[in-house]
Structure formats: structure tokens, C-alpha cells
Amino acid sequence: MNALIEKLKEYAELPAIIWNDRFYSYNELFVKCNEALEFIQQNGVNEGEVVSLIGDFTPNTIALMFALIQNNNIIVPFNSTIKHSEQVKLDIACVQKTLLVDVTNDNYSIEGRDNLGEHLLYDTIRERKKAGLVLFTSGTSGNPKGAVHDFSRLLAKFNIARKSMSTVNFLLFDHWGGLNTMFHTLSNGGTVLTLRDRKPDSICAFIEKHKIELLPASPTFLNLMLMSEANKSYDLSSLKLITYGTEPMPLSTLERLKKAFPEVKLQQTYGLIELGVMRSKSESDNSLWVKVGGEGFDTRVVDSLLEIKADSAMLGYLNAPSPFTEDGWFMTGDEVEVKGEYIRILGRKSEIINVGGEKVYPQEVENIIQELDNIAEVTVFGQKNPIMGNIVCAKIRLASDEEKKVFVTRLKIHCKEKLQSFKIPVKIIIEDEPQFSERYKKKRQ
């Protein structure tokens, strides 16, 4: 962490953050970090305590994050939009104090909480005299799990200088993808551009205004942007790189994205809350084959399932069994195909639909359906059936009104041309409700 603090001084008057259309220099951020450290120490935040930090990528939220790391606290980040239903995560994490940042004016305050218990994993971090980080899985395919990290291991990679670009912090503050973008940008002298509104029109306007070079986003967001044609209403010529991850990318979306941005490099990323973000290299801009790994990561495939060994791996879950093999490999649950050094992610093992003994990957069926015109979103899932075990169902949101009978007929014809019979959806639900969470990630419950 000291190296990161030194870099703040080194970059001096360079712009570190743009928030509310104001530039904050690295010197200003350095001063805010010192003020935040003084604040938490004066308010009785002791080394090793579990502290939740509720905010966004505002100057003071970032400064408080740096201060808590310097103070060797175990940090539990939450978005400023934390819902009442998420309060249970504070209990799971045994949070002792809460730092709350008002994202409208960047003022902050502190509250105490009743200590509801302890966890053995925290003892390991305290014995090392390091900062800790607790991140919760999104829960889009199950109950959220709390992953406990030695923060120093996640931060180690930022000691290596890399190229930096002006970047939209699209991914959220409580997600390692979002924090990874922030730390990478600040450790290399780049500028963090903070958003309040993550709608496609707002993002595109922001890119045009600030000449953004890098857009890290989810496939769901990129699909919605293309569907809305927001990208056609703004000058996005400053973009050099679009990275996509957090969920599988439909090939049809990738092809449309390349057509819309022929001069922009497209790169698939692969990261997990339990491990961090790995370096990755797409086989080509319009290919879903990707090479993942890099320094500090080893990969292997066992029974078609991807396993990863990482220096930055979490210590374990707060509220779930260990997902590691006896020899220390993390079982991702992602089923993959292998082609030399490259892999292609087929989907989560837990999401595979068993139809009469045959495997159906929801992502494969979704890809085929999304080839059709007038598809805004589609989610494929299984439903229990007494004869087949399960049947394939598709929940679809149309881009514009269309008679259901006409749409279902052309969907069936298209699927029969492209899919084996057991993969064709038996039940088709058309609804107007969005199928994504506030993270712009497909909800699969």
C-alpha cells in the first residue's frame, strides 16, 4: 500500500479523478487520504476492525478506502444504493463500524454497530498485520457468499507499471472488477471518471465529453447500448478499448459490437470475486476464445471444468463451504472447451439443463435466439418435467411490439434450423420486465 501512496505524490498535479465535472489532482487525493486516515483514527477505528464502507467512486470514498488499507482494517465495501435486503450482509461480515459517504456532496460520517460475532478467517488477516477485504458474490445464480481476502495479495500486482487510459468506472464499487479498474488506473497515473448514471445514453455522452479511451462493461450493457443505438448519437471516436466480462458474451452481440466499433479493440476479461482479475488475451476481436492466466495464476481443466490456482486467492467464504481442492485449486464451476492455449466458456455447471440425459447450455440457446431481429433480452432456463426430467424455457423481452403467435412461429423455425430438437425451447414467455440487475448483469434465478 505504501507504494500506491507514494505514487499519488509522484503523479502530483495530474488529474486523478473527475467527479461532478470537477478534476481532482493526485496531490488533492493524497491530502484527502491523510485527512481520512486522521478521521478514522480519531473516531476510534482500531487496526484489525471490520469496517463497512458505503459509497461510490467519489474522491472521499476512494480516500477512505486508502486510509482503511493503511490502518490494516478489514474492509467491506457497499454501493451507495445498498438496499434494505442487503443489510444481512453486514451481519454475515460481522461489521463493527460503518463509514457512510453522501455521494451528493462527498461528506462522510461514521456509525458504530453491535458486534454480532467473529470469524476465524479474520484472525489470519490480523495475525499477518495486513488489511482485509470482504466481497460478496452478486447472487444472480444463488445466495450471495462473502469472500474474505488478504487485501495485500490483491494489491500486489499494481506495483508493476502498466499503460493507463482514461477510464469510465462502469463496474460498481462493491465489485472487484470496479475496484480493480480504480486501483489499476490510479497506480499508473490515469484518471478515474465517476458515474452517477449508468444508462447507455448517459455513458455515451460521458465518453464523448471526456474523450474516454477505455470502457469496461458487461455484455448485457453493451447489448442494451447497441439495441438503443445510443452509440450512434455521440462521438465515441476516442475509445481505443472495450473490455467485457462478469458474464458470458453472446457471439451475436460481439459481432454487432465489432461492426459498430471497427477501430476499437475488444477484449474479453476473466475474473472472479474469489480470485481477482486475470490477465487475458482474446484470440481475435470477434472470437469468444480467450487465453487467461498470467503471473500469479495457473489454470487447468478437470472433467471439462476450469480450475485456477492463484496467489491472490481468497482465504475462504464467511458463509459457505470451501471451493478449493485439497491441493489448493479453486473450482470455478465454469464448463469450458479447450483449443490449445485458449478456452471458451460454455456456462456454469449449475446452470446446465438436463433434458432426457442430454446437456443443454443456456448460453448456446440464447446465442441462437439473439440472432433474431427484435430481441432485446433473452434468458434460457430449465423447468422440471415428469417425462423429460427438465424442459427448456425461454423468457424474452422484445425490442418492440409483435404479435406473440407470429414471433413464436419464427423463433421455432429459426431454432429448428440451428439447434438439436432437445435444445429448442418448449415454453416461451414474453414479458416487458428487464432481465438484468443494477450491475447490468443477467439475472438467472
From TrEMBL:
The keyword Ligase applies. GO terms for biological process: fatty acid metabolic process. Residues 364-431 form the AMP-binding enzyme C-terminal domain. Keywords: Ligase. GO terms for molecular function: medium-chain fatty acid-CoA ligase activity. Residues 7-279 form the AMP-dependent synthetase/ligase domain. It comes from the Bacteria. The keyword Ligase applies. Belongs to the ATP-dependent AMP-binding enzyme family. This is Long-chain fatty acid--CoA ligase. It comes from Flavobacterium yafengii.
